[in-house]
Specification:
Largest sheet: 7 strands, mixed
Shape: globular
Strand order of the largest sheet: 2-8-7-6-5-3-4
Order of helices and strands: HEHHEHEHEHEHEEEHHHEEHEEEH
Bound molecules: 4'-deoxy-4'-aminopyridoxal-5'-phosphate
Number of helices: 12
């Protein structure tokens, strides 16, 4: 007789990513995909031009140094000085990872103990909760205000206690579009210092913010360099999400723990794309100004269409997502709303509830992204304009 297999309890509650489910529906109905947050335009010419030369060098086809090639780590350290106000030692404080996704999991696994608590703001990016489950730590959610995603610092303070080991933050935020201000970050820094909490800050959208806002790195605030892990990567800034290059920047004792996980999980990040990443990080300031100008243009097209439909939303301060609320149009269920959008309008969005832990969170909302060519967004706008989005029972 064959003995029944036992599988891990840890991974049992994981759900398949809702975004993939939306992409499947999209393939069925042929909608404009504003669900998955990936660009449909080309990376910068300079990067494409550099690749053939990089690929013709035999050394780029083998493992890099485990923590990342020394040259690329130096580029990341220089970039941290140039854009983030951080002084970073490339030898002891930078780890190159397979995307921001890996850097986040390495940080949670490397810096917590089972039973610890990890504080995060809600709505959250979908990888944070499974990362906590893998590490056996308990997420504690601090809801942002529903109308404008304002952070209530007294709620955050109440969520932190002596069991809190980490705080995961994301600024500019997905899906909220919030850019945490210097004064909010100063309060957060005070809390981290008072309770001995490490902040893991996902800054993947660090270069994408709009008028009146500006990205600030928490690690650059006084007293935070020794207790912040700054995570970012190439995917969003250079439209190369498939390259899988990210990094975790943290003081040496924290980096040491992050590297231990990284070493045994992936050994190293892809060598050719670390080499190409040096070209990306050397692009001039004009590249980042253009990037913001283009995103501002895309944002205007989509937000105007959404407003014409009667949806309510907070205009994003940064990142390339907007969460809309369909409640003013009579909708009560986010899945009904996104199914209607997909099947009757031909636009794919992500149901709002997939960014919340609590029952009823995001239940009349949906997330759309505008990391798309102008013609893709104009086509989405045309489809939205054609149809009434009002709920009909
Ligand atoms: N963090 C956030 C907030 C994201 O939106 C995403 C991608 N959608 C990631 C991390 C994943 O980044 P990467 O592709 O570099 O793993």
């Amino acid at each position: 007789m064959k003995k029944r297999l036992r599988l891990s309890r840890r991974t049992r509650p994981f759900q398949e990513s809702v975004i993939r489910e939306m992409t499947r529906i999209g393939a069925e109905v042929g909608g404009v995909n504003l669900a998955q947050g990936l660009p449909d335009f080309d990376p910068p010419r300079e990067l494409l031009a550099a690749l053939p030369g990089i690929l013709s060098e035999p050394r780029h086809h083998q493992y890099s140094f485990t923590w990342g090639s020394p040259e690329f780590r130096r580029s990341v350290a220089e970039k941290c000085e140039r854009f983030n106000g951080l002084t970073v030692d490339p030898d002891t404080e930078v780890t190159i990872t397979c995307g921001v996704s890996e850097a986040l999991v390495d940080s949670v696994l490397g810096l917590t103990e089972p039973g610890d608590e990890v504080v995060m703001l809600e709505p959250w990016y979908e990888n944070y909760v499974p990362a906590c489950a893998l590490a056996g730590v308990k997420p504690r959610f601090v809801p942002l205000r529903e109308s404008d995603y304002a952070l209530d610092l007294s709620r955050l303070t109440k969520a932190v206690n002596r069991k809190t080991r980490l705080m995961i933050l994301n600024t500019p935020g997905n899906p909220s579009g919030r850019v945490l201000s210097r004064s909010e970050l100063t309060e957060i820094a005070r809390l981290c210092q008072r309770f001995g909490v490490i902040a893991v800050v996902d800054e993947i959208y660090e270069h994408i913010w709009y008028e009146g806002h500006r990205h600030v790195s928490l690690a650059s605030l006084p007293g935070m360099a020794d207790r912040t892990v700054t995570v970012s990567g190439l995917g969003k800034t250079y439209a190369v999400t498939g390259w899988r290059i990210g990094w975790a920047v943290a003081a040496a004792p924290l980096t040491d723990r992050i590297r231990k996980v990284h070493d045994y999980v992936t050994l190293c990040a892809p060598s050719p794309f670390q080499a190409a990443g040096r070209v990306a990080l050397a692009l001039p300031d004009a590249y980042y100004e253009d990037l913001r100008r283009e995103y501002a243009r895309r944002r205007t097209i989509l937000l105007a269409a959404l407003a014409r439909c009667g949806l309510s939303f907070m205009p994003p301060e940064g990142s390339y997502y907007v969460m809309v609320d369909a409640k003013p149009l009579g909708w009560k269920d986010d899945w009904d709303f996104v199914n209607f959008l997909a099947r009757k309008v031909g636009v794919l969005a992500v149901p709002g509830s997939s960014f919340y832990s609590r029952r009823g969170g995001g239940e009349t909302r949906a997330r759309l992204n505008f990391a798309k060519r102008q013609e893709t967004l104009l086509e989405a706008a045309r489809r939205l304009d054609e149809k009434s989005l009002r709920y009909k029972a």
